[in-house]
Amino acid sequence: MKNITAFLDLPKTTHILDLPCGKGRHSVFLNSLGYKVTGGDLAENSIQLAKNFENDTLKFKVHDMRKPFNNKYDAVFNLFTSFGYFDNDEEDIQILQNIKNGLNTEGYFVFDFLNAEKVKLNLVAEETKIVDNITFHIKREITNGFILKHISFFADGNNHSYTEKVKYLDLEKMTSFFTKVGFKVCDVFGDYHLNNFSARRSDRLILVAK
Ligand SMILES: C[S@@+](CC[C@H](N)C(=O)[O-])C[C@H]1O[C@@H](n2cnc3c(N)ncnc32)[C@H](O)[C@@H]1O
C-alpha cells in the first residue's frame, strides 16, 4: 500500500481508518510510514492481538462496519477483499454510506477487492493441495451471485471443513454501489503496482473514490 499513499500524495497529518483491519498488518505498515492510523474490525480476538502494536498514533477498536463512525477521517482503506459478505446489497451499500459519511471533505476511499471477472474466467472447480503434510480438498463455484470456496481437510484426528464466501462484485456493480452513496470514482487500478485495470487479466480491482 506504499504505492497508493505515494500516488495519493497523502500529507503525514492524514488520519487513516483501516477498515476492517484484521490483526492490523496494514495499519502497522501505514503507521510506520508516518500516518496516524485507526484500525477497526468486528473480530474482538483480532483487535485484542492488534492492540499489542498500539502507540500514540496507532489505535485499534472493535467496530462493525455496518454501524456509523463517531469520528471523521481523511482517508478510509478497505483492503484485501474485506467487503461483500452480506446477502442483501443494502447492507453493503450501508457500509459504503457509513464510510462516505465518515470522511472529511476531499477525503479518499481506497477499495481493494479481488477481480471477480478474472476469478470467473479462471475458476478451478476442484483441486487438492498438500501443505505441511495436510491434504486440502478445495472446491470452487459461483452460485447466486457469490464466489464460494469450500475447503476440507483431515488434521489432528478430525475432519475439518469451512466455506469462504464473497459476493461477485465486478467493476460495473461496484461503480453502481459507489454512485448510490455519492462517491465519485477517480481511479481504477488492477494490482498493487497500480497498473491499469483489465477485467480479463488483473488480479485486483482497486478503486479510489472521493
Ligand atoms: C479478509 S480479512 C482482511 C483483514 C485486513 N484488511 C487484512 O488485509 O489483513 C476480512 C476482515 O473483515 C472482518 N469483518 C467481517 N465482517 C465485518 C464487519 N461487519 N465489520 C467489521 N469487520 C468485519 C473480519 O473480522 C476480517 O478480519
Automatic annotation (TrEMBL):
Keywords recorded for this protein, A-Z: Methyltransferase, Transferase
Gene3D superfamilies associated with the record: S-adenosyl-L-methionine-dependent methyltransferases, Vaccinia Virus protein VP39
Entry protein name: SAM-dependent methyltransferase
GO molecular function: methyltransferase activity
Any GO BP annotation: methylation
Residue intervals of the Methyltransferase domain: 12-139
Signal sequence, start to end: none
Annotated SUPFAM superfamilies: S-adenosyl-L-methionine-dependent methyltransferases
Family matches, as CDD domains: AdoMet_MTases
